[in-house]
Amino acid sequence: MRVLIRTTLAMPGLKYNSVKVRSLAFRVAVFALLASAILSWIAIRRHAESFSNKEQFSLSNYAGSASCRDCHQEEYGEWAKSHHGLAETLVDSNDIAQPFGLKTVTRNGKHFANVSGTNWEVDRIIGVEPLLQLLISTTNGRWQAFDTAWDTRQHEWFNVFGTEERRPGEWGHWTGRGMNWNSMCAFCHNTALRKNYDALTDSYQTTMAERSVGCEACHGPAKAHAAWQHRYAKSGRKDPTLQLLSRRQNLDTCGACHARRSELTDDFRPGDDFLAHFDLAMADATELYYPDGQVHDEDYEYASFLGSRMGAAGVVCLDCHQAHSAKTRLPGNFLCLRCHNGSYTNAPVINPVTHSHHRVHGYDDSGKVADTDLAHFRPEEIKETGGECVSCHMPQKIYMQRQSRHDHGMTIPDPLLTKECGIPNACNRCHQDKDADWAAARVDQWYGKSMERPSRQRARELAAARSGNPAAVEPLLKTFAVETNSYWKAAIINYLQPWAAEPRVAAVMRQGLANVSALVRGKSAHALDMALENQNDPETAAALRSCLEDPVCSVRIAAAWALRATLDPKSRAGRDLAVFLQLNADQPGGQVQLGQLALAKGDPPKALEHYRTAVAWDPASAAMRRDLAVLYSQLNQSREALAQLREAVRLEPREAEYRFSLALALSDAGELAQTVVELREAVRLNPRYTDAWRNLGLALAAQNDLNAASDALAHAETVDPADPRIPYARATVLARLGRLAEARSAAERALVHRPDYPEAQELLRRLNVP
What we know:
By secondary structure, the chain is α+β, with helices and mostly antiparallel strands. The chain contains 38 helices and 16 strands. Helix 28 (588-600) packs antiparallel against helix 29 (604-617) and helix 36 (725-736) packs antiparallel against helix 37. 39% of the residues are buried.
C-alpha cells in the first residue's frame, strides 16, 4: 500500500513532507487521493481473497490419486506410468530429471536453470515422451513453457519451433503470452485447474487439485467416494457417491483436453456436456482443417473425430484406447478388425490385404490371419507398412518438431482432391517420389466409381467456399439440407459465414438456431452475428433472442455476443458472456473481444484501450493491427490508422485483405495513386477478391482511366455476378465512355439482382432519354 500511495502523491512540484499545507481544499484533495489509494488496495485484496475462497470451496471435494491406489492397484499402476500420469511432474519428484539432462542450481530448496544468461526458477516439467519441456517461473504468478525441449529418443536438445524465429516481445516467444503455462498448458496437464487471472494486476493465482492428469480428472471429485469406501466397503451396500458416465459423457470428458477449443467457463467436471463449457474450433474457412476434414493445424483429436463416420456411428475413445494406460487395446489392424470383421451390423467387413492392396503384418496374401501372436507386433514396425488401416485413414502429422499424432478424422485418401483442391492424400504422404496423378490412377484402378461419394463433393464445395467463390453457396445450402452428421452441418454454416447477410443464407442459419444439435445452434448464432453487423435484420435478431435462454451455455454465449449491443448484462446470457470475457482477458484475443463489446456499447475510448493492449501483447499480429486501424479511422485518427495498416502489410505482405484495408485508408487520405497500387496488389494476391476488384474499378475511374476501370469491373462481375453494385458501377463508367448500349445492359443487370436499386433506376432512366 505504501508504494501505491507514494506513486499517487509523488507528482512534480509537490513536496508532501516539506511543504506546509495551508489550503483546506488542498487537504481535502490529498485526503481524497489517499482514500482512493486505500480503496484500490482493498479492492485488489478482496479480489485476491475471492479467488482463495472460491478455490477452497471448489477443491475441497478432491482426494487425490493416491487415495485410489489401495483399492485399485492395477488401474493405478497403469495410470502412474502413462502419459496422463506423467503429464506434468516436479523436477525432483522422480528420475525424470536425469535423462532430461537438466543442469540446475539449487538454492533454498528451489531449482534454477540458466537461460540466456539469467537464472530462472524451474520446478516442473511438461510431458514424458517423446519430448520434455521446462516450465520457468517469471513474474506475477506466471510460468512459461521454454522453447528448447529435450528429445527423449535422440537424447538431444532442440527448439520446438524449428527454424522459425520468435523474438522477445512477440506473443509466440517463450516469454510471451502464447507460451504462458497458466493460460495455454495448465488446464490439460493438471487436475481441476483454475487459472485465476486477475485483470486488475495482470497476474495469476493458479491452483489445482492435483498436479498431472489424475484419476479425478476423468472420474470427477472422489473425496466422498474414498470416505464412503473407507467406512462401508465391506457392507455390501451400493456406493451412492459413484457417478457412472455414459458413453457420450466419456467422449466429452476426453474432448475437454483433446480438443482445440475456447474456454467459456472454468468449472468443467467429468460428466458435463462439452459445449456447456467450451466453444469448439472445427472445420471452417480458415486453415485449421482441410475441406475434407483432415487436420491442418494443431487441432488435436476431438473435433475431427466428431466429423468421422466412426464418431457418427457412436464409437468413442474407450472403444479403441485402454482407460488407464491410454494405449490402444490391440496393435495394428487387429484393433480395427474387432468391428470390421462381420461382428457389427453397421461396420462393413474389411479384408485388409485386398482392401489396401498393400502387405499387411500378420496376414497372408488372401487376407487371412497368419499370425495371432500379438507379442510379435511392435507399433514402430506396423507403422512402416501401407497396409495398416491407420496409415491411410489416420495419417500422422508431426507437431513440435518431434511428436507425431494420428489424425482422428478417419478420412478417405483421395488424390483427385489433391489435384483439384490442394488437399493432401495419404498415398503421396508415403510415396513422396510419386505425384498425385500416379496416385489417382492407382485409386481409380482399385476402387473405381466408389470414390465418387458425397464426402468428395462436399469437400469440393467447401474448398470453393474457402476461396470466396459465391457459386459454392447454392450447392452448400443443398448439402446442408441432406447432411446427417451434425459436425458437418455446423462446418457448412461456418463456411457460409461470408454470405450470412444474403436472405437465402440467413434463412438457413435461422433454421440452424432450432437444430437438435447444440453444435449447429451455436455455430449458426456465431455466423448470424455477421448478418446483424451488415444490416438491420429484425427477423434474425428475434431468432437470436430466442437462443438467449438455450439450455447449453455455448449457444447462449454465441447469441449474446451477436446481440451484444442491446444485451442486458444482468440476464443469464449476459452473465455467461461476462464470465467468458473475464476468463479470456489475459490473452490478446480476449482484449479484442472486450474492445468489440465496448464499441457495441458506444464507448470508443474504452475500446481503444483494449485494442492497444491487444497489439502491445501481440505486436506481430497483422489482424489485430488492422482492427486497431479500423477503430482509429472511426475516431478520425487517419494518421494512426495508416501507420497500423502499413505495419500489418509489412508483417503479412501476401495477405490480400490487409492490402485492401490499406488501400481504403489511403483513399480516405486522398492518396489515389497509391490506392490503385495497393488494390492491384490485392487482386494479384487474391484474384477472387470481389470488393478489391470493384474498388479498383472505382479508383481507376476516379483517375479517369476509364477503359481500365471498365475491365476491372467486368472482372469483378465474373467473380460475383450476383452483386448489383458491380454492374451499376460499370454502367456509370461505360456511360462516361459513350458506350450507351453496354451501359444500359449493365444497369439492367443490376436491377435484375436488386429491382429496388434507386441509383440504377435513375441511371437507366437517363440512359433511355433520347
